[in-house]
Every structure is written in structure tokens, then in C-alpha cells.
Design goal:
heterodimer, A: alpha/beta, Rossmann fold, Alpha-Beta Plaits, six-stranded mixed sheet, four-stranded antiparallel sheet, 13 helices, elongated, B: mainly alpha, two-stranded antiparallel ribbon
Amino acid sequence: MTAAVVIDHLQKRYGDTEAVKDISFTVERGEIFGLLGPNGAGKTTTIRCLCTLAKPDAGRIEVCGVSVIDQPRQARRRLGYVAQEVALDKVLTGRELLELQAALYHLPRSTAQERIAQLIELLALTPYADQKTGTYSGGLRRRLDLAAGLLHRPELLVLDEPTVGLDIESRLIVWEFLRQLRDAGTTVLMTSHYLEEIDALADRLAIIDGGKVLAEGTASELKDRVGGDRVTLRIREFATDAEAAQAQGTLQDLAFVESVIINTAQGNSLNLVVQRNCNPLTQIEKTLSEIGLPTFSLAQSRPSLDDVYLAATGRTLMDAELAAASSRDLKKEKKQAMKAS
Amino acid sequence: MSQSISPSPFNLAPTAADAPEPSAIAEFSQETLALTKRLFIQLQRRPSTLMAGVIQPLMWLVLFGALFYNAPQNLFGDDVNYGQFLAPGVIVFTAFSGALNAGLPVMFDREFGFLNRLLVAPLSSRYSIVAASTIYIISLAFLQTAVIVGASAVLGAGMPSLLGLGAIALIVFLIVLGVTALSLGLAFALPGHIELIAVIFVTNLPLLFASTALAPLSFMAPWLKWIAALNPLTYAIEPIRYLYFNSDWSLGSVVMAAPWGEMNFAVMLAVLLGFDAIALLLIQPLLRRRFA
């Protein structure tokens, strides 16, 4: 069986902006695949090219073996698309919107009615289905949009930032629903700039930044690849610079310690990378007490996706977000996307 | 949000590609009907555009009629008052204005992202978007035309025969189709609604004044006469005017004395048909612009 998505050396520029420089990845059938990256990394542009909304400048894109560029209609029949900004006609009711959507995918009337009724129930939309969508909350809009994307039972569901702006409960509902979908055989490709979302949901993921793929694999593969466990140490709730430096100097000499960084933003706590499976905590505490320093808190964990991200990009996702937020002109980007697509 | 998703018999398994593909015509009519239905639901729930669309031509009729109330008798033809002369112009101009605005809802759909819903769907042809808008605009135009014909009759312009009314409907359809297509093409091509409104603004009234809607060709400066004789609106106005003035008419009747010679009913209709064909062909690359 062909892969659900093959993207091969995709390139796309809008005006002077090179939105996608060189992106390649493969999504296997029946998995949830996450595209992780800060805002402005090229995720949405990649999705727009995949969903036939933008024409790539170069590269190959296939959906279930069908070339998106050569046979866009065939590709469209195979994919469902849930956009980042839910666009509903506020004058229509939820049910009317689904009826319109069903007709655009050429479902026979009886099939359409049946599936609309089921999806309304499944996504807990029953009390709202016959109200105008203009009255919907963010969570409702998102669920209606999900229902719309699923009416034709696509082989591939593409979601761009599916839980941005949702409350925690709505987010958990969407997560659970996507897992059910995956278990029933639908391939899910989603973008997110939430680490925990990708960590919780995605079977495999690709980290994207600056229009390029920096890493691809399962979350645990990627975590293994960045090496040892993480240890967070606090000498006191707020340690002095001298104490932190003293501890750093001593701990660095331990055989199982790979690196020690002082995190000044967190009250001079120390972040250590240690060898896997070496049970380091007792040893660290002992070493500290030998040089007369207390231990306020000490915790060991596997590397997180943020560590993976940090290793791949040289900055944390949050730093990247902040940098992107200050340098981006969203209005200009939207204008360019409308013009040049 | 307090409910959670309950287990359900809904089959979540994908089936999209296995579905048998219905014929292209069935698909086209299904998507066109659905898109048309949306426009009519919007109209039903926001009827103000309909009200304005009916009131405006009536104001044209009353105001322009009063403007030339004391014009010399027979200035516009034997036994013709200005009201009679004006009615066909208002019919065509009203239909034309409606069609010219057809692109605006599509432009707003584009700006709000709703159009993506249509573009991501496997539409058999994006001409279904054009077809739906045309059906919607033509329905409005027929309603407006009926009101104008009725009001003109009350104001003393008389009423064409039943066959004549059928011919008016055909002519209105032809002008609406071409202009709607061009307007939708602009909605796909221009950067945003500001630009589209600007184009509508500079097109609308000049095309009215450069046509025979308000005055006959014989009144005009020679250069304007040429422009008016090339203006598609004139090709809709003059045949309708002929229907208003002459109870006996045929496809061979001469309806316009253009600067280069006389043109009969059949030729005028053929020009309108040609205008539609060119408009529809012209927008094809724009509809395809993102993808086929």
C-alpha cells in the first residue's frame, strides 16, 4: 500500500518570503503524524500545498499515491481539510453547512443525511445543529468544522492547528476524537506549535523550522537521539550565583554527567544531561553535601520534545515563538498568500 | 462544553475513494444546486439587499421620468414618452448592476476563508460557482424586471406581448450571465474587496451613461455614439426597447442604427451570446489559477 502522504523536496515562496525552503516527509497509513514548529515555520504553507490550495514552486506531493499536482481532483476526494481559522457562513445553521459540504463532495442525499445525523451526535453538536453558526463558541465551531471535514470519510484528514484557542476540555475532546479516527483507519496529519499536543497524539512527527525539516521520527526515537536523561536541580529555592557556579564546577567532573547549564531565569537552578540508566540522583545529592551545599529539589526525566527541539534548532520552542511573533507581519503574509497562491 | 463524545455506531473508517463516481453532469448540478441554495438562504435571512434591489430601479424610473417630464413631444420617437423610452434602460441597467456585484460575496468568502472550503472540495468544475451565482442573480433580476415592467405599465409605458416578455427574459439572462462571469473572474483575480469595489465603482455608472439606456444614439456626440454602439448594455437595451415600441417584431427587425450600419434583432442577440462566450472563456484561467 502506498503511503498516505509523500512530500518530497517541497518549495514554495510568496513574494520575497521563502515560506517553504525544502520540506520532505512521509506519512504512513493509519498513523497520526504531527508537524511541529513555531509559528511561521512553514507548516501552514506545507498544508496549503498538500490540500491543493497553493501551487508548489518545486517538489512532489502525493496523497495515497495520487499526485496532488497532476490530479488535484482525485487527491481532493481522498483528503479532508480542517483549516486553522474556521470559516463558517454565520447565516447558515450547522446542519445547513454540513448539507452544503456533503453536496460539494457529491454524497447521495440519503447517505448525507445519515452521516450528518451521526456526526452531529458523535461530536455532541445535537443541541446546536439547527442554530446559526454565528452563535457558536470556538469549541463548537471547531467541532462543526471537524464534522464537515469528515463527511466524505476521507482516507487522510489534515488539520492545521486543531486546538488553537480551545479550552482544555474541548482540546481533550478533539484529541480523543482524533485517536478514535486513527484507530478506525483514518490517517491524520496535523500541525501544532504545542509540544504536549504532538507528544500526546502523534505516532510520528517532523520538526519544522525556517521552512525545513530538522528531524523526523517517533517522539521516543527523537528523544533517544538527543541523548541522556535530564536532571533538574535546585540547591535552594533561589540559589546565589556563587553557589550555582560552585555546584556546576563540581558536578561537571562526575563521570556520568554530560553537561551542566545554569538556568538564571529559574532561580539559578541547574539543568544537567546525564547518561541513561545510571541512577544519578543519590550520587548528585551526596556530591553536593560533600561541598556543603543543600538540595532543595532534584528531579530526573527523559528528554522532552522541547529538548529535542532545542537540540535540533539551538533554541527552545518558546524562544522561537517569541522571535517569530516580533518579526512577523501577519497581515502582509495573508495578503501575499491571497495574491500569489 | 459539558458533554463528552459518546460511543456511537458511526463508522469512522475511510471510504472516500471507494465511492462510485457519479456522472459529471450529476455532480455539477448537485454542487451548483447546493451553492445556489446557500445564496437563497442568505437572501431569506438578510432580505435587505432584495428590498434595496427592488426599490432602486423604481426610483430610477420615477426620478428620470420626472427629469425629462417636459421634454418636447416625440423627441424620443413617434408617440413615445420618456417613460416608455426609459423602462428598457432601467431593466437592463438594474440586471447589469446586480450581475456586476455578483463577485462581492465570493470575494468576501475568499477573504474569510470560506472559499477554501469550495476549493478543497472535489468540485466537478469551478464553473458551478459561476452557475450558482448566475442562477441567483438571474432570479433577482427577473423579479426586478417584473417589478419594473409592472411599474412602467402603471406609469403609462404599456406592456409587451407574452412572447415579447419571453424575449426580454432571454435578453436579461444573456447580459446577466456574461457580466456575472466577469465579476466572479475579478473576485478571483483582484487582491481584495476594496479593489473589487473600486472596479465596480468605475465601471457601473460610466457604462450606463455610455449606453442607450438614458438617451438614443442619435443624441450623442460622434465619439460616444461609437462607444455606446459597442457597449454590451446597448445590445440588451435596444432589442427590449424595440419590443416596447413595436408589437409586430421578428428576428429580422432592424433595432439599432449603429455608426457602421443597421443591426437587426438576431444580430443583437448573437452579439450578446458572443459576449457571454468570451466572458466565460476569459475567466477560465482565473478559476483554474490555484489548481485545475
